[in-house]
Design brief:
With about 200 residues, the protein is mainly α. The chain contains 7 helices and no strands. The chain binds protoporphyrin IX containing FE (2 copies).
Length: about 200
Amino acid sequence: MLLKNLHRITGIIVSAFVITHLFNHSMAWFGITTHQRILDTLRIVYRQPVIEICLISCFLFQAFSGVKLIFRLRKKEEKSTFEKIQIYSGVVLGLFILQHIIATIGQRFYFKFDTNFYFASRVVLQNPIKWYFIPYYALGIMSFATHVANVHQHKMISRIGERQAKIHFWGIIGVFAIITTIILYVFMGGRFEIIIPSEYLVY
Ligand code: HEM
Ligand code: HEM
């Protein structure tokens, strides 16, 4: 119970970051300068060393506690639909989080470049790596959406009934599907031409 409560509390912290993070990426619709301005503003907060260490620790704890919760549920013979969805979406989300943190922070220190719009755009623009990174980003966002929408649905059933809760679930999934489409469309060069600076062409 303690582990589940901690998973929920750190889940709220990381969700606040993910929502602002995705808002930042969606705003690239209005141009790379707009994206960079919002990124610079957000970095004033989350790039403070103490805050960044806490944030990354929360993400890693989320993955670690999630795996422990899955092992606990494995012992249960009859798993509910809620539990099954949390397990499947959690596994995908956990794999995404681990790779994404290693990639963004690792490359920031190793290649010493700014992990900005071009850093993310390049991998969904270039052949053949884009065939890995397009589903990678889409699954990252949609597994997060499914995990959170499922919790929301589960908590709302007793208040608003099963039918309404299901509408909320699909509503949340729909909103995140639109956000995913917007981000990938812009980052893949659908809205304006993107010329990747040569320093990002490291692999
Ligand atoms: C952004 C990351 C994540 C967020 C925001 C998040 C959030 C949550 C929340 C709020 C709950 C409901 C807790 C409750 O019922 O009080 C939950 C449950 C759960 N999460 Fe996550 N989680 C994340 C990542 C993960 C990962 C990476 C895994 C697996 C590796 C995972 C596995 C689970 C499982 C199995 C449950 C169900 C626990 C149970 O009902 O016994 N989560 N999560
Ligand atoms: C299409 C979707 C996404 C793109 C293009 C993207 C891109 C990026 C970029 C460029 C950075 C570096 C930020 C910086 O230098 O300040 C970053 C950092 C990060 N992203 Fe994402 N991201 C996406 C989705 C997600 C999702 C869904 C999650 C979590 C579930 C996530 C978690 C993180 C974390 C934890 C960091 C590290 C923050 C730090 O620098 O301390 N991202 N991402």
